[in-house]
């Protein structure tokens, strides 16, 4: 079929989007009368995906047409990008319908899910790059491997894997469980971003755990001893936590640039020192008061210093989501902007890729190392605030610990990307919450730990293997493209015939003025 016969050559992009959404929603609504809603939605999204692909096969996207055509005609695009886009479109539609089903009727949620999946189909077909598809494929492969390993452990332990997974899925999707997952993932996200800032500079900040605990203790003490008006009280507590976390991480940064001390050793030692300082200060007569018979903590923060929660009635739960979830969102946006839209972010990434090359380009490497550790600690200081200002309102002996080390695993799982860390945090919190029901069924709760450790390990290994293969494929594509460009470049033999001044004068002597004029013109063309 010729290119002009394709509707994509005449239909504009907005028209294709509208038709795809109507097709996905219409097919889903029609089949919902005869099939289960999820089966109808899958068929509707697949139909919309096929339509978008059909229209897109006869046109190129905006930008360099040659590049787009070359990429779409590659084997990698046909065998990986399109299947990945299809799977993501279907999953997006199913998740949207499941979330909407909490507030809407089933048929309405399925219809909207089909429309959302169709919209994702258009976006992914036109915008999903090969390297990003490789990243998703690595995550999918790691998830399958981790599930298989966990199932094998359960099977050889005499526990039915399918029954266990169904039980975890059922408990983890309850309204109250979903609220707890969101609250836990908020703190996990902040810890992972703090670690990721260091990872971008090839720095291993293991001290996030000590930084956030010391920051939470001193921020809680300031908030409990100072009675301030609303907003001002929260601002003072947040600033205190940020300052303490930044200073504590800055010590490791200074030791790194001034004395060459490894940040791994420095942060591990600072974790131990932070634990000792916390234990020393959290005693009666210093910063602590008696909270209950077996517990002591800082004076409770007055109600004017609390951050109100978000009612989760839309999830069907009577509990509240931490109000500082918006702080985590702001941190994620700021992290992305810093990395991709600022000079500091460019220098940070450049220094992380090659310190010698960055230094040769005029980047102050020592300054970047110190500032990276400083900013990492400042974000780490925020980790304990959602719990402090949203739930407990004081720092006590039972304050959550170990979140900093969880942040390391989540940063690796999310590939240090602000969006990837979101999904990694939600997944990690889901496994923690879903495993809480297992002891009641006589199943070891540590099965969640096995799944978490396995998926982190497999994601790191599989992603690295797939990413190296993708880079090699890109290099081969660039080489072939350069070869075609060289073959189509005309030889400049005729142009250079009269380029030299000596040759031009000789021709002028033999051929007279006419020949001299011709050589002069050729020399001008050559120049």
TrEMBL record:
The keyword Membrane applies. The chain crosses the membrane at residues 12-29, 35-54, 80-100, 106-125, 132-159, 179-199, 211-228, 234-255, 264-282, 321-339, 369-389, 395-414, 421-440, 446-466. Residues 476-527 are annotated as: Disordered. It is a multi-pass membrane protein. GO terms for cellular component: plasma membrane. Pfam families: BPD_transp_2. InterPro entries: ABC_transp_permease. Residues 516-527 have a biased composition (Basic and acidic residues). Signal peptide: none annotated. Keywords: Cell membrane, Membrane, Transmembrane, Transmembrane helix. One of its GO terms (molecular function) is transmembrane transporter activity. It is found in: Cell membrane. This is ABC transporter permease. Its main location: membrane.
């Amino acid at each position: 079929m010729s290119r002009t016969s394709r509707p994509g050559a005449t239909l504009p992009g907005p028209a294709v989007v509208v038709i795809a959404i109507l097709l996905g929603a219409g097919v889903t609504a029609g089949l919902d009368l005869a099939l289960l809603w999820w089966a109808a939605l899958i068929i509707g999204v697949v139909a919309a995906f096929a339509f978008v692909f059909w229209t897109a096969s006869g046109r190129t996207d905006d930008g360099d047409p040659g590049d787009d055509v070359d990429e779409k005609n590659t084997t990698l695009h046909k065998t990986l990008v399109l299947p990945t886009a299809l799977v993501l479109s279907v999953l997006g539609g199913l998740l949207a319908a499941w979330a909407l089903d909490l507030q809407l009727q089933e048929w309405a949620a399925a219809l909207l899910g089909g429309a959302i999946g169709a919209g994702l189909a258009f976006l992914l077909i036109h915008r999903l790059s090969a390297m990003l598809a490789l990243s998703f494929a690595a995550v999918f492969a790691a998830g399958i491997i981790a599930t298989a390993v966990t199932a094998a452990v359960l099977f050889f332990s005499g526990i039915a894997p399918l029954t266990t997974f169904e039980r975890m899925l059922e408990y983890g999707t309850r309204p109250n469980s979903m609220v707890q997952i969101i609250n836990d993932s908020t703190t996990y996200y902040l810890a992972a971003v703090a670690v990721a800032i260091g990872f971008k500079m090839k720095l291993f900040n293991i001290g996030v755990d000590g930084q956030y605990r010391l920051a939470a203790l001193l921020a809680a003490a300031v908030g409990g001893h100072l009675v301030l008006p609303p907003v001002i009280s929260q601002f003072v507590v947040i600033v205190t936590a940020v300052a303490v976390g930044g200073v504590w991480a800055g010590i490791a940064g200074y030791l790194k640039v001034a004395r060459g001390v490894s940040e791994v050793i420095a942060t591990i030692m600072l974790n131990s020192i932070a634990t000792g300082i916390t234990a020393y200060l959290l005693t009666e007569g210093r910063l602590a008061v008696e909270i209950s018979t077996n517990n002591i903590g800082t004076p409770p923060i007055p109600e004017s210093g609390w951050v109100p929660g978000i009612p989760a009635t839309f999830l069907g739960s009577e509990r509240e989501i931490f109000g500082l979830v918006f702080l985590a969102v702001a941190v994620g946006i700021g992290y992305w902007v810093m990395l991709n839209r600022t000079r500091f972010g460019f220098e940070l990434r450049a220094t992380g890729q090659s310190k010698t090359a960055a230094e040769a380009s005029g980047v102050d490497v020592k300054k970047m190392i110190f500032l990276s550790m400083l900013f990492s600690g400042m974000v780490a200081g925020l980790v304990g605030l959602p719990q402090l200002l949203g739930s407990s309102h004081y720092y006590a002996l039972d304050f959550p610990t170990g979140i900093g080390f969880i942040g390391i695993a989540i940063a690796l799982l999310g590939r240090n990307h602000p969006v990837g860390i979101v999904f990694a945090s939600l997944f990690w919190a889901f496994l923690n919450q879903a495993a809480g029901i297992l002891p009641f069924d006589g199943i070891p709760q540590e099965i969640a730990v096995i799944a978490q450790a396995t998926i982190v390990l497999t994601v790191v290994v599989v992603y690295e293997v797939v990413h190296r293969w993708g880079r090699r494929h890109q290099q081969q594509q660039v080489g072939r493209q350069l070869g075609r460009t060289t073959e189509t470049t005309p030889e400049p033999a005729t142009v250079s015939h009269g380029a030299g001044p000596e040759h031009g004068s000789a021709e002028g002597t033999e051929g007279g003025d006419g020949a001299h004029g011709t050589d002069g013109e050729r020399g001008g063309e050559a120049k």
